[in-house]
Fold:
Amino acid sequence: MKKTLSLLLVLVMAVSLFAGCAGGDDGKTIIGFTIYKYDDNFMSFVRRAIEKNEDQVDELLMNDSQNDQAKQNEQVDVMIEKGADSLAINLVDPQAASTIIQKAKDAEIPVVFFNKEPSAEDLNSYDQCWYVGTTSSEAGIIQGELIRDAWKAHPEWDTNGDGVLQYVLLKGEPGHPDAEARTKFAISTVVDAGIKVEELELQTAMWDSAKAKDLMDAWLSKHGEGIEFVVANNDGMALGAIASLQGNGYFEGDLFMPVVGVDAIPDALSKIEEGSMVGTVLNDATNQGQATFDLAKNVAEGKDPLEGTSWVLQDKAVRVAYVAVNIDNIEFGKKAYE
Ligand code: GAL
Ligand code: CA
Structure:
Protein backbone atom coordinates (compact mmCIF):
# COMPACT_ATOMS: atom_id res chain seq x y z
CA MET A 1 0.00 0.00 0.00
CA LYS A 2 2.79 2.38 1.05
CA LYS A 3 4.73 1.44 -2.06
CA THR A 4 1.84 2.22 -4.40
CA LEU A 5 1.29 5.52 -2.62
CA SER A 6 4.88 6.68 -3.00
CA LEU A 7 4.91 5.48 -6.60
CA LEU A 8 1.81 7.56 -7.22
CA LEU A 9 3.48 10.56 -5.59
CA VAL A 10 6.53 10.22 -7.83
CA LEU A 11 4.25 9.97 -10.85
CA VAL A 12 2.31 13.08 -9.91
CA MET A 13 5.55 14.97 -9.33
CA ALA A 14 6.98 13.85 -12.65
CA VAL A 15 3.87 14.90 -14.54
CA SER A 16 3.74 18.35 -12.93
CA LEU A 17 7.45 18.83 -13.55
CA PHE A 18 6.96 17.94 -17.21
CA ALA A 19 4.10 20.39 -17.52
CA GLY A 20 6.21 23.05 -15.83
CA CYS A 21 9.00 22.88 -18.33
CA ALA A 22 6.86 22.60 -21.44
CA GLY A 23 5.96 26.29 -21.33
CA GLY A 24 2.64 27.85 -20.36
CA ASP A 25 0.63 25.88 -17.83
CA ASP A 26 -1.11 23.50 -20.21
CA GLY A 27 1.98 21.50 -21.12
CA LYS A 28 1.71 22.53 -24.75
CA THR A 29 4.20 24.52 -26.77
CA ILE A 30 2.58 27.28 -28.80
CA ILE A 31 4.72 29.74 -30.78
CA GLY A 32 3.32 32.86 -32.40
CA PHE A 33 4.98 34.13 -35.59
CA THR A 34 4.41 37.24 -37.68
CA ILE A 35 5.90 37.95 -41.14
CA TYR A 36 5.84 41.67 -42.06
CA LYS A 37 4.20 40.69 -45.37
CA TYR A 38 3.85 37.33 -47.09
CA ASP A 39 4.13 39.09 -50.43
CA ASP A 40 7.91 39.61 -50.06
CA ASN A 41 10.12 37.44 -52.19
CA PHE A 42 12.89 36.77 -49.67
CA MET A 43 10.58 36.47 -46.65
CA SER A 44 8.60 33.75 -48.41
CA PHE A 45 11.74 31.59 -48.21
CA VAL A 46 12.31 32.44 -44.55
CA ARG A 47 8.68 31.51 -43.90
CA ARG A 48 9.12 28.17 -45.63
CA ALA A 49 12.17 27.43 -43.45
CA ILE A 50 10.10 28.16 -40.35
CA GLU A 51 7.01 26.17 -41.38
CA LYS A 52 9.13 23.12 -42.12
CA ASN A 53 9.36 22.69 -38.31
CA GLU A 54 5.62 22.72 -37.75
CA ASP A 55 5.47 19.22 -36.25
CA GLN A 56 8.08 20.13 -33.61
CA VAL A 57 5.52 22.09 -31.58
CA ASP A 58 1.87 21.74 -30.62
CA GLU A 59 0.87 24.89 -32.41
CA LEU A 60 2.64 27.22 -34.81
CA LEU A 61 0.59 30.38 -35.22
CA MET A 62 1.54 32.13 -38.48
CA ASN A 63 0.41 35.67 -39.37
CA ASP A 64 0.71 37.83 -42.47
CA SER A 65 1.01 41.39 -41.14
CA GLN A 66 0.33 42.75 -44.65
CA ASN A 67 2.83 45.57 -44.17
CA ASP A 68 0.58 47.15 -41.52
CA GLN A 69 2.04 47.69 -38.03
CA ALA A 70 -1.38 48.28 -36.44
CA LYS A 71 -2.51 44.94 -37.84
CA GLN A 72 0.64 43.26 -36.48
CA ASN A 73 0.02 44.70 -33.01
CA GLU A 74 -3.48 43.20 -33.05
CA GLN A 75 -2.11 39.86 -34.23
CA VAL A 76 0.26 39.86 -31.26
CA ASP A 77 -2.67 40.49 -28.88
CA VAL A 78 -4.61 37.59 -30.41
CA MET A 79 -1.63 35.22 -30.17
CA ILE A 80 -1.16 36.12 -26.51
CA GLU A 81 -4.85 35.44 -25.91
CA LYS A 82 -4.46 32.08 -27.61
CA GLY A 83 -1.77 31.17 -25.09
CA ALA A 84 1.43 31.67 -27.11
CA ASP A 85 4.45 30.63 -25.02
CA SER A 86 6.79 32.80 -27.09
CA LEU A 87 6.58 35.29 -29.95
CA ALA A 88 8.77 35.43 -33.08
CA ILE A 89 8.27 38.80 -34.73
CA ASN A 90 9.30 40.12 -38.13
CA LEU A 91 8.42 43.76 -37.53
CA VAL A 92 6.66 45.90 -40.12
CA ASP A 93 8.22 49.05 -38.67
CA PRO A 94 11.58 48.56 -36.91
CA GLN A 95 10.58 51.41 -34.57
CA ALA A 96 7.63 49.38 -33.24
CA ALA A 97 9.79 46.93 -31.27
CA SER A 98 9.11 48.71 -27.97
CA THR A 99 5.33 48.27 -28.41
CA ILE A 100 5.75 44.53 -29.00
CA ILE A 101 8.19 44.21 -26.10
CA GLN A 102 5.70 45.87 -23.76
CA LYS A 103 3.01 43.38 -24.78
CA ALA A 104 5.40 40.45 -24.26
CA LYS A 105 6.47 41.80 -20.86
CA ASP A 106 2.85 42.19 -19.75
CA ALA A 107 2.11 38.61 -20.82
CA GLU A 108 5.40 37.41 -19.28
CA ILE A 109 6.52 35.64 -22.44
CA PRO A 110 9.79 35.89 -24.40
CA VAL A 111 10.11 37.47 -27.84
CA VAL A 112 12.52 36.74 -30.70
CA PHE A 113 12.68 39.39 -33.41
CA PHE A 114 13.96 38.41 -36.84
CA ASN A 115 14.96 39.99 -40.17
CA LYS A 116 14.19 43.61 -39.18
CA GLU A 117 16.61 44.52 -36.44
CA PRO A 118 15.29 46.52 -33.48
CA SER A 119 17.57 49.12 -31.86
CA ALA A 120 20.08 47.88 -29.29
CA GLU A 121 18.23 50.01 -26.75
CA ASP A 122 14.98 48.13 -27.39
CA LEU A 123 16.72 44.74 -27.35
CA ASN A 124 18.32 45.57 -24.03
CA SER A 125 15.07 46.79 -22.49
CA TYR A 126 13.86 43.21 -21.86
CA ASP A 127 15.95 40.26 -20.70
CA GLN A 128 13.60 37.82 -22.51
CA CYS A 129 14.26 39.32 -25.92
CA TRP A 130 16.58 38.28 -28.78
CA TYR A 131 17.29 38.95 -32.46
CA VAL A 132 18.01 36.62 -35.39
CA GLY A 133 19.28 38.18 -38.61
CA THR A 134 22.51 39.30 -40.20
CA THR A 135 25.10 42.06 -39.89
CA SER A 136 23.48 44.54 -42.28
CA SER A 137 26.69 46.27 -43.35
CA GLU A 138 28.24 42.95 -44.41
CA ALA A 139 25.92 42.60 -47.42
CA GLY A 140 26.84 46.10 -48.57
CA ILE A 141 30.56 45.44 -48.27
CA ILE A 142 30.32 42.15 -50.18
CA GLN A 143 28.14 43.74 -52.87
CA GLY A 144 30.68 46.58 -53.15
CA GLU A 145 33.47 44.03 -53.62
CA LEU A 146 31.45 42.32 -56.40
CA ILE A 147 30.99 45.70 -58.13
CA ARG A 148 34.66 46.61 -57.66
CA ASP A 149 36.01 43.34 -59.07
CA ALA A 150 33.59 43.23 -62.01
CA TRP A 151 34.22 46.89 -62.91
CA LYS A 152 38.00 46.40 -62.83
CA ALA A 153 37.73 43.27 -64.99
CA HIS A 154 35.58 45.06 -67.60
CA PRO A 155 37.01 48.42 -68.68
CA GLU A 156 34.50 48.37 -71.59
CA TRP A 157 31.66 48.88 -69.10
CA ASP A 158 32.78 52.51 -68.78
CA THR A 159 30.73 53.21 -71.88
CA ASN A 160 31.37 56.96 -71.98
CA GLY A 161 35.05 56.37 -71.24
CA ASP A 162 35.30 59.09 -68.55
CA GLY A 163 36.87 56.79 -65.96
CA VAL A 164 33.87 57.27 -63.69
CA LEU A 165 31.30 54.61 -62.78
CA GLN A 166 27.86 56.13 -63.38
CA TYR A 167 25.32 54.14 -61.32
CA VAL A 168 21.69 54.09 -60.33
CA LEU A 169 20.69 52.61 -56.97
CA LEU A 170 17.43 50.89 -56.10
CA LYS A 171 16.98 51.20 -52.36
CA GLY A 172 14.90 49.00 -50.04
CA GLU A 173 12.57 50.39 -47.41
CA PRO A 174 13.98 53.67 -46.01
CA GLY A 175 14.81 53.35 -42.31
CA HIS A 176 15.22 49.57 -42.60
CA PRO A 177 18.69 48.78 -41.20
CA ASP A 178 19.44 46.48 -44.17
CA ALA A 179 18.48 49.11 -46.76
CA GLU A 180 20.44 51.88 -45.07
CA ALA A 181 23.60 49.84 -44.49
CA ARG A 182 23.61 48.16 -47.91
CA THR A 183 23.24 51.51 -49.67
CA LYS A 184 26.02 53.10 -47.67
CA PHE A 185 28.55 50.27 -47.67
CA ALA A 186 28.12 49.07 -51.26
CA ILE A 187 29.17 52.48 -52.54
CA SER A 188 31.80 53.25 -49.90
CA THR A 189 33.51 49.92 -50.61
CA VAL A 190 33.77 50.82 -54.33
CA VAL A 191 35.04 54.32 -53.52
CA ASP A 192 37.56 52.98 -51.00
CA ALA A 193 38.99 50.82 -53.81
CA GLY A 194 39.91 54.02 -55.64
CA ILE A 195 37.09 53.90 -58.19
CA LYS A 196 35.44 57.22 -59.04
CA VAL A 197 31.66 57.05 -58.96
CA GLU A 198 28.74 59.25 -59.91
CA GLU A 199 25.25 58.62 -58.58
CA LEU A 200 22.75 59.32 -61.35
CA GLU A 201 19.70 58.19 -59.39
CA LEU A 202 18.87 56.80 -55.96
CA GLN A 203 15.29 56.01 -54.98
CA THR A 204 13.40 53.47 -52.95
CA ALA A 205 11.45 50.71 -54.65
CA MET A 206 10.53 49.20 -51.24
CA TRP A 207 12.21 45.82 -52.00
CA ASP A 208 9.62 45.35 -54.76
CA SER A 209 10.14 44.11 -58.34
CA ALA A 210 7.25 45.95 -59.97
CA LYS A 211 8.19 49.27 -58.35
CA ALA A 212 11.81 48.77 -59.41
CA LYS A 213 10.78 48.09 -63.00
CA ASP A 214 8.82 51.36 -63.12
CA LEU A 215 11.76 53.33 -61.73
CA MET A 216 14.19 51.70 -64.14
CA ASP A 217 11.88 52.45 -67.08
CA ALA A 218 11.88 56.11 -66.08
CA TRP A 219 15.63 56.22 -65.50
CA LEU A 220 16.36 54.60 -68.86
CA SER A 221 14.24 57.09 -70.72
CA LYS A 222 15.99 59.92 -68.84
CA HIS A 223 19.63 58.74 -68.98
CA GLY A 224 19.63 56.07 -71.69
CA GLU A 225 23.06 54.52 -72.08
CA GLY A 226 24.48 57.02 -69.59
CA ILE A 227 23.75 54.44 -66.91
CA GLU A 228 26.70 52.07 -66.45
CA PHE A 229 25.72 50.04 -63.38
CA VAL A 230 22.53 49.07 -61.54
CA VAL A 231 22.96 48.51 -57.81
CA ALA A 232 19.95 47.01 -56.06
CA ASN A 233 19.53 46.51 -52.30
CA ASN A 234 17.85 43.16 -53.01
CA ASP A 235 17.28 40.67 -55.83
CA GLY A 236 13.58 41.41 -56.10
CA MET A 237 14.41 44.94 -57.25
CA ALA A 238 17.33 43.74 -59.38
CA LEU A 239 14.90 41.44 -61.20
CA GLY A 240 12.54 44.36 -61.79
CA ALA A 241 15.41 46.39 -63.25
CA ILE A 242 16.40 43.47 -65.49
CA ALA A 243 12.80 43.17 -66.76
CA SER A 244 12.91 46.87 -67.66
CA LEU A 245 16.32 46.52 -69.31
CA GLN A 246 15.13 43.54 -71.35
CA GLY A 247 12.14 45.57 -72.46
CA ASN A 248 14.58 48.21 -73.64
CA GLY A 249 16.66 45.84 -75.76
CA TYR A 250 19.41 45.04 -73.25
CA PHE A 251 21.08 41.61 -73.05
CA GLU A 252 20.57 41.12 -76.79
CA GLY A 253 23.37 41.86 -79.22
CA ASP A 254 25.88 44.33 -77.77
CA LEU A 255 23.67 46.14 -75.32
CA PHE A 256 24.65 45.08 -71.79
CA MET A 257 24.13 46.40 -68.27
CA PRO A 258 25.78 45.07 -65.12
CA VAL A 259 23.21 44.50 -62.34
CA VAL A 260 23.88 43.34 -58.77
CA GLY A 261 21.49 42.41 -55.96
CA VAL A 262 21.31 40.77 -52.53
CA ASP A 263 19.52 37.58 -51.34
CA ALA A 264 20.50 34.95 -53.97
CA ILE A 265 16.88 33.89 -54.49
CA PRO A 266 16.50 31.22 -57.19
CA ASP A 267 15.17 33.65 -59.85
CA ALA A 268 18.27 35.81 -59.44
CA LEU A 269 20.55 32.77 -59.70
CA SER A 270 18.87 31.95 -63.03
CA LYS A 271 19.65 35.48 -64.25
CA ILE A 272 23.29 35.04 -63.26
CA GLU A 273 23.36 31.81 -65.28
CA GLU A 274 21.73 33.56 -68.25
CA GLY A 275 24.32 36.31 -68.02
CA SER A 276 21.90 39.15 -67.27
CA MET A 277 23.05 39.58 -63.67
CA VAL A 278 26.63 40.02 -62.50
CA GLY A 279 26.24 38.75 -58.96
CA THR A 280 24.36 38.76 -55.70
CA VAL A 281 24.94 38.21 -51.99
CA LEU A 282 23.49 35.16 -50.33
CA ASN A 283 21.11 36.15 -47.54
CA ASP A 284 20.67 32.77 -45.92
CA ALA A 285 16.88 32.36 -45.58
CA THR A 286 17.11 28.71 -44.56
CA ASN A 287 19.44 29.27 -41.62
CA GLN A 288 17.75 32.49 -40.50
CA GLY A 289 14.36 30.75 -40.49
CA GLN A 290 15.77 27.74 -38.66
CA ALA A 291 17.61 29.80 -36.04
CA THR A 292 14.49 31.88 -35.40
CA PHE A 293 12.42 28.75 -34.90
CA ASP A 294 15.03 27.09 -32.67
CA LEU A 295 15.37 30.08 -30.36
CA ALA A 296 11.61 30.70 -30.21
CA LYS A 297 10.93 27.06 -29.34
CA ASN A 298 13.63 26.87 -26.68
CA VAL A 299 12.51 30.00 -24.89
CA ALA A 300 8.85 28.96 -25.20
CA GLU A 301 9.80 25.84 -23.26
CA GLY A 302 11.71 27.82 -20.66
CA LYS A 303 15.09 26.60 -21.88
CA ASP A 304 18.25 28.46 -22.70
CA PRO A 305 17.76 30.03 -26.16
CA LEU A 306 20.69 28.06 -27.64
CA GLU A 307 20.02 24.68 -26.02
CA GLY A 308 20.60 21.78 -28.43
CA THR A 309 21.67 24.11 -31.27
CA SER A 310 24.96 25.28 -32.74
CA TRP A 311 23.93 28.95 -33.11
CA VAL A 312 26.09 31.59 -31.48
CA LEU A 313 24.72 34.58 -29.57
CA GLN A 314 26.54 37.90 -29.53
CA ASP A 315 24.88 40.64 -27.50
CA LYS A 316 21.48 38.91 -27.73
CA ALA A 317 21.72 38.38 -31.49
CA VAL A 318 22.33 35.40 -33.77
CA ARG A 319 23.84 36.75 -36.98
CA VAL A 320 23.98 34.50 -40.04
CA ALA A 321 26.81 35.26 -42.49
CA TYR A 322 26.33 36.69 -46.00
CA VAL A 323 28.26 35.14 -48.90
CA ALA A 324 29.14 36.55 -52.33
CA VAL A 325 27.58 34.62 -55.22
CA ASN A 326 28.45 34.91 -58.90
CA ILE A 327 28.76 32.49 -61.79
CA ASP A 328 31.88 30.91 -60.22
CA ASN A 329 30.03 29.52 -57.17
CA ILE A 330 26.46 29.45 -58.46
CA GLU A 331 25.98 25.85 -57.30
CA PHE A 332 26.67 26.92 -53.73
CA GLY A 333 23.93 29.56 -54.01
CA LYS A 334 21.48 27.02 -55.40
CA LYS A 335 22.15 24.60 -52.54
CA ALA A 336 21.38 27.26 -49.95
CA TYR A 337 17.86 27.65 -51.32
CA GLU A 338 17.10 24.01 -52.05
C1 GAL B 1 16.03 41.87 -46.34
C2 GAL B 1 15.97 41.19 -47.69
C3 GAL B 1 14.93 41.87 -48.55
C4 GAL B 1 13.61 41.96 -47.83
C5 GAL B 1 13.78 42.54 -46.45
C6 GAL B 1 12.48 42.51 -45.67
O1 GAL B 1 16.95 41.21 -45.52
O2 GAL B 1 17.22 41.25 -48.31
O3 GAL B 1 14.78 41.21 -49.78
O4 GAL B 1 13.08 40.67 -47.73
O5 GAL B 1 14.77 41.83 -45.73
O6 GAL B 1 12.64 42.99 -44.38
CA1 CA C 1 31.64 56.31 -67.09
User: Anything to note?
Assistant: Confidence is low (pLDDT under 50) at residues 14-23. The domain at 2-134+285-320 is CATH 3.40.50.2300 (Rossmann fold). The pocket of beta-D-galactopyranose (ligand 1) is lined by residues 40, 42-43, 115-116, 176, 178, 207, 234, 236, 262-263, 283 (CB under 6 Å). The chain has twelve helices and twelve strands.
